[in-house]
Amino acid sequence: MAAVVVVVAGLLHAWRNTNVLTADRLCGGLVSAEQADAVLPGAGRLDAEGEGLDDDLTDTVCRVGKSSVLPGSEKSELTVRVWAEQGDGLLGVEHLLDLPRTSFFSGAVTGGVDTRQAWALLPEKCWTPKQPVIVRVSTTGPITDRAAFAAFTTGTARSVAAAARCGDLPEKPGPLVPPVSDEARPVSEGRVCGLDGLSVRGRVPEGAKVLEQGQKASAGLWSCSLFLDDDSSGIVRADGFMTYTASRDPLFTAAVRKAPGATRGKAPDGRAAEVVDTRKMILSCAQGDPLYLAMRPGMQYLEAREPAGLPATDDYFAPFTKAAAKTFGCAAPATG
Fold this sequence. Notes:
Structural class: alpha+beta
């Protein structure tokens, strides 16, 4: 009898605190239990809510939690959604809470991860007629292993595409491109954000100390935010002075092309461009894939613009375009 009690107790412990008795795939086969366990912190048993793909692909939702009855254990959870989104909105706060601290991946699969959210673009055949479609993952707590988070997001996107029969994705993402540093650092005048020729002289309040944070240029997906090291309030300081983004990733560029209102036009340097708005455009390059460039003024700029007599936003976008095109190897096509 004692032996039976020990066995039952052992099985109960395994069921409550480990994944020995958990299925290999969760949420109708869309999620790997092993990968979910690697992402969610701590020890415990996985439980899932979700039946696989919805009849409408973009209504698909899956929740995976990890909990344990061991003392001091806390429940952690992640939510997977299949989501339609404007391509020019993918590098926004809706999908990445902290763009300057994001790690990107591109190539065979395109996406990004920060400490709480991640996304990966599905193949074009999965998209709606008007919008690209992503797999978006959010968590209730910070994730320390970004490589595991990116692998989970990619693996789930691969399962979604396979189940929907709309394309193939690799099992794992390419190398992650992390931020250059964990904290914002002083800019290098004439090479702001690592872009050759980009300067802040005459474009920030006199005497202001300017910091930058983001990934190393150039990369398939890239961003950099500028901050004024001043006495701005918390939310204003966090939003920063100016944020720049760039990409030569073909799938990302295809996603941007679906943005409403995108038209043929010209870049500030006169070359042909597909213009989403005056601060978002896709530049034609003499060689290779086109270059997407975008700029977003932050609250620090908006607060300082009038008191400090700062230039209009167009006076920031034109030099950014010139410097980014040079750094990302996007020479203007020959005309004739």
